[in-house]
Design goal:
Belongs to the UDP-glycosyltransferase family. The protein is an alpha/beta fold. Helix content is 44%, strand content 14%. The structure holds uridine-5'-diphosphate-glucose.
Amino acid sequence: MAKNEKKASSSKLAHCLVLTYPGQGHINPMLQFSKRLQHKGIKVTFVTTHFFNKSLHRNSSPIPIALEAISDGYDEGGAAQAESIDAYLERFWQIGPQTLTELVEKMNASSVPVDCIVYDSILPWALDVAKKFGLLGATFLTQSCAVYCIYYHANRGFLKLPLTGNEILLPGMPPLEPQDMPSFVYDLGLYPAISDLVLKNQFDNIDKADWVLSNTFYDLEEGVVEWLGRHWSLRTIGPTVPSTYLDKQLEDDKDYGFSMFKQNNESCIKWLNDQAKGSVVYVSFGSMATLKIEEMEELAWGLKASDKYFLWVVRESEQSKLPENFSEETSQKGLVVNWCPQLEVLAHEATGCFLTHCGWNSTLEALSLGVPMVAMPQWTDQSTNSKYIMDVWKMGLKAPADEKGIVRREAIAHCISEILEGERGKEIRRNAGKWRNFAKEAVAKGGSSDKNIDEFVANLVCSKCL
Ligand SMILES: O=c1ccn([C@@H]2O[C@H](COP(=O)(O)OP(=O)(O)O[C@H]3O[C@H](CO)[C@@H](O)[C@H](O)[C@H]3O)[C@@H](O)[C@H]2O)c(=O)[nH]1
């Protein structure tokens, strides 16, 4: 009897499955959003793939969310086991819907049946699964609204590809040049499967989604949020940075919880503790970008030429591209690690600027922690993010590339010096402080993103009562 009573009361909880694509840049924002939902009384089950689930490193604090996995067809090795990214996506598309269906059936036979699936926008088939079961479906955008607005215009044929002319005018956005566009828009034919995914597939059924949730905040992208909001049930819910660094509503929420790579916590923080306030350049290109050997060399010698202290994350798979003797030659000034606790590093008072590839999470983290950026975009959404960092939010400088597309050491050293010591650096630091405050306000109680999450939660709970 006691058992049945428990079953009855728990079945009144609204239950969300949150399904993420297996990548660091996707799992971080969706897990943080899950924590906020759970904090507001929703039961959440966080779902990724079997291989990813097995291979993730758990960071210090335990993750307060139920975890489940589905198959992408590569349970033993994930995307690396596939012969190409195209092959991986094709198989995931075949197997994913079937194994997600099985998971929903399993949950529905439990005491907490599923009410809603929040899915990564690049897994749009999850909405079809949700609708098959009569569930609510919310697509989650892991990149900026500006980038989705560009993709939307390309998708609906309002932006003609290949691009012509030197100025692109889109609603709610500053005038853009071709090189400010996401790589899938200005460099057609590159990675056809991913290009299809971002330009076509993710928009196929977006009009049928009950909500479009975006990891941004209103003040950051006001014009474009307003415009997209006229087309979709768009709700901004970000920045999805752990609560300790922003509003502190969630107790002990210091890190994302999972890492694809083993991180080097102690040595990084110990090293930073020995450096002067605002003196260190933190360098990272996220979880995916791969640099050409020439680019890596220019970056290495650019850091040395800057004559500043630097903490550089070079993933294990990239280490062999470091110039010979570089670590020895720079050991007085630099520390090279495989992976680090990025949030702790950005929050550290020794960190003076962030040389970044401008992945959307890194951008939002720097913004939330008020750290000026040197932008070195590589591909996908990063060039658009770098345009906003430099010209719209004015909280960084984009390091210019030469005619071969390579950022040379002089340009790197110059941008670092401008930010850490130049007049422009002062203005950039003032703006960084301003954006940090706006980011905090958005997620704090009663802020624009907090209110949107409240509304989402209220709708879920209400749908449960009907
Ligand atoms: O040493 C490190 C380096 C990175 N991170 C974290 O890893 C995440 C990296 O995310 P992001 O900055 O978005 O970069 P990518 O991993 O490259 O993310 C991919 O996914 C993002 C969301 O779709 C896109 O914006 C990017 O362009 C795309 O490359 C961030 O949360 C970082 O805090 C660490 O914890 N330690």
